[in-house]
Design a protein that fits this description.
Two copies of one chain form a homodimer. Chain A contains 14 helices and two strands. In chain A, a hairpin with a 2-residue loop joins strand 1 and strand 2. With 296 residues, the first copy, chain A, is mainly α. At the A-B interface, helix 2, helix 4, helix 6, helix 7 and helix 8 of A face helix 2, helix 4, helix 6, helix 7 and helix 8 of B.
């Protein structure tokens, strides 16, 4: 199957699963669920769920085992965007071409929407993980890995470093420290989650962890490069990183230097996948896809 | 053992466990961990962890099995206070007699501190639950119950209803709908969590669930009554509910009416505990303690 066809399949699976998770419920205020759905169904690329499903399939697992965690990762990613867009944070009013949640629903509801999405992520991971038939101890290993990657040692920690660095002189060490956490950690754990749900262990699991680490950073470098693109391409306001004096790869290395880093990381991704042989082909194609959208 | 002595013991246990969970870590930005600790170690009553440990002991379980979940519940409670105090929410500058997190660390760090505390709660529950030796399927049942109670069907949903109701005419149905979710859900699941960690099932588990539901509501009614008290007693600014035109029990029933509701709920708590016999004595005393601080 081509990568495009696989991507379409994975996204259909994920969107159906997210739709099931975010149904109206008698106990949940309707406007809160509406805001959660508004945030989640806004044309995202579903990169984290795609990586989880692809990694699960690459190790010969059933993607049904990875699906609850794929949902959880997308809910966590979405909550982070909702909170990141808040006036007290990046103060963005546009995301994927639409008003951000706090513009559409008010700031208080946006705070709560993020909180509810983050909480729902762990509900889905725990409840759905059990229901998928995966062994409970493996479900718990995955929930723990996701929580570590999403928390103060991972994504939230990266956002705190990022805010702290804004407007200060940045060097490559700092930029990498921020991005490994802010984006890299969750993308990396998406790969690990899929591998664990698919039954991977030993050398295969290690190979996929290394792949996830390189891919997570590659994705962010590519994103930084694309930030210079006009709104019509990315659906968010262009040049926001520069406006906020964010620590980015293009800021410390220039755009060409950032492109070289992205290409190096793609090579690392491919090298990490060698132990998987042809089973790694879709992941290999994903790594190329991620990097080439910013370097082609 | 007297209730006072038990409370002191439980709080010492919880504070030590929280301290271990919130240690500096190479991967976590120091100022974020500092803000997390500032929020958590601010003289809270640890009511949710206390309920979890007390319920676990009441069913003959080892409190070591309930400890990770007790921590998780306190982290969730704390994050909800940090976010609730934000300018976009209740805009409180004082909590337990100290500047709130956004006053002390800035608004962006306060958003992230709440996010990190919520995420850490699920890390502790999953990782600590396994480490405690509790069966993995029981750990997952507890994690799921906590996520449901903390999310859009529970605590976060209650906060959304609460914000939505501010300034509008409130009736008893609405006030109860808000408080059952906003405070009741997490207090209720604290009792359930302790019971599950302690190995309860069948009639005992049902009895403790009923106790938790009644106690959760009783706690909030008492809190509403105490809101009229001066700052010196509660450590927060007095009369904030009325200032925000919040839907509260005293607002719809008057203070005397609210006191009668609190006393009725205490009776319900005690009735629910009957199947436990003398093993329920500490929980019985806890219910009296919660209600009597507002009605004595």
């Amino acid at each position: 199957m081509t990568l495009d066809a696989s991507l379409a399949d994975w996204r259909t699976t994920i969107d159906a699963a997210l739709d099931a998770v975010l149904q109206p419920h008698d106990d949940a205020p309707a406007h809160l669920v509406e805001a959660m759905r508004y945030a989640v169904f806004s044309g995202g690329k579903r990169m984290r769920p795609v990586l989880a499903l692809a990694a699960c399939e690459a190790v010969g697992g059933s993607s049904a085992h990875a699906e609850p965690f794929a949902c959880a990762l997308e809910l966590i990613h979405t909550y982070s965007l909702v909170h990141d867009d808040l006036p007290a944070m990046d103060d963005d009013d546009l995301r994927r071409g639409r008003p951000t949640v706090h513009v559409a629903f008010g700031e208080a509801v946006a705070v709560l929407t993020g909180d509810a999405l983050l909480t729902a992520a762990f509900r889905v991971a725990a409840e759905g993980g059990v229901r998928s038939g995966l062994a409970p101890d493996r479900v718990l290993a995955i929930v723990t890995a996701i929580a570590v990657a999403a928390g103060e040692r991972g994504m939230v920690g990266g956002q705190a470093l990022d805010l702290d660095a804004a407007g200060k002189p940045a060097d490559l060490t700092l930029v990498e420290a921020i991005h490994r956490r802010k984006t890299g950690a969750l993308l990396g754990v998406a790969v690990e989650t899929g591998a664990l749900a698919g039954g991977a262990s030993g050398r295969t699991l290690e190979a996929l962890r290394a792949f996830g680490r390189a891919l997570g950073l590659a994705f962010q470098v590519a994103d930084d490069i694309l930030d210079a693109a006009p709104t019509a391409v990315t659906g968010k306001r262009a040049g926001r990183d520069a406006e906020h004096q964010k620590a980015t790869y293009p800021a410390v290395l220039g755009v060409d230097g950032a492109r070289r880093v992205a290409c190096d990381l793609k090579t690392q991704c491919h090298a990490a996948l060698e132990p998987l042989g042809p089973a790694g082909d879709q992941l290999r194609a994903l790594a190329s896809f991620v990097v080439e959208r910013a370097t082609a």
